Amino acid sequence: MTSSSVSLLPTTERALLHRIAVGQAEGRAPSLVGAVARSGRLVWAGARGDVPVAADTQYRIGSITKTFTAVLVMRLRDEGLLDLDEPLEKRLPDTGVGAATIAQLLCHTGGLAAESPGPWWERTPGVLRPGLADVLGEKPLAHVPGRRFHYSNTGYTLLGSLVSAVRGVPWEEALRTEILEPLGMGRTTYQPVAPYAEGWAVHPWADVLLPEPTEDLGLMAPAGQLWSTAGDLCRFASFLSVGDDRVLSAESVREMRTPAAPPMAGDWDGDYGLGVRVLRQDGRTLVGHSGSLPGFVAALWFSTDDDVAAVVLANATSGPEPWAVAADLVRIVAEAEPPLPEPWRPLPEADTALLALTGPWYWGTYAYGLKVLPDGHLELQPLRGFGRGSRFRPLPDGTWLGLDGYYDGEPLRVVRHQDGSVSHLDLGSFVFTREPYEPGGAVPGGVDEGGWRGGSS
């Protein structure tokens, strides 16, 4: 057993170590590593079993690789080299995937089959599938594109080939120069680099082991090839939470974390964004990905609201449940040591035009409050009962754009009288006035001239 800490309480560390110890023992894993980061910094790492260095031992991370591939695609979009809504066939012709768009492949709604035909691709060398036609087979589509969520390894193979085609370099080279080197992830590699864990299968009915093969996945590599460490993946999770302009902006990683696919049947607490899973558990939103390849299982989860990320890696084909253990590590830290709020400070200067807009507004008889946020955005929230709230960011033309909730993407306009005074707010055609059904206001349908009255009139 090894462990290291920076700034967590001893009781929290003990709870974290207990959780990974239970995960390793009950999951019957030769080794299991867990790590936690806060504010972009590794604050705890622990291991059970035969692990040379807890935070620095490589494990194969399987489908967490897909999230790296998604980041590379998002970079291409941000550089204007492609559009997420364009068909993949525009960039990779003759694949047979028809109208499936790049965005649909990212969120697994492109309709592609889950697996490659032929021998089990995770336990056979990639040279058996030298071309995309060998990866996709004669019928690459299992569903009509855009209709439903259907997890697809072959879809991410296509996305990796897309990156190579647009960049003009192999996928692994783009990965190294565009993500790993800028983020300082020197222990994340295409092939294992010591110290690394050996992959094992554990007999389901006896405590004996069988070594698993480690294959180069070839064209399937963008779906699951990578090796990494708990320390490197905590760094990657922190990037996915706040962004890094050297790789991808905060706005773009937020877009990745936004649910983009319908939840799977029976799984109404889970969803999928652009390359990441989005999960509601223990009252919080977790974002990340899990992964598995013969001999290894892995999970990465983070909670942006709690500023906590957790990674769990194990070297067994089945048994450990790293996704559950990692979620518990996030919960343990978030509940035991909730983050302190930022101290309140006044704005550096007062914007009198914005101040004039704050306060109560009414949509019909629904009461709302409009306030200025520290970042200069506006927030409109119901003051009582039912209502739809959103935050808004300013646009150069003087309007505002909804950022979340019902009004996400909707325009907010301040409508003024000829003398420059404020008449009302127009939010996606909904009129908000200073008084409920304000007499003489721009209320659609008008306001009864008799005004408000008692029940006996």
TrEMBL record:
Keyword field contains Ion transport: no
Gene3D superfamilies: DD-peptidase/beta-lactamase superfamily (3.40.710.10)
A single GO molecular function term of this UniProt record: hydrolase activity
Keyword Magnesium: no
Beta-lactamase-related domain span: 21-334
Membrane-spanning residues: none
Domain DUF7586: residue ranges: 351-434
Annotated keywords: Hydrolase
Name under which the protein is recorded: Serine hydrolase
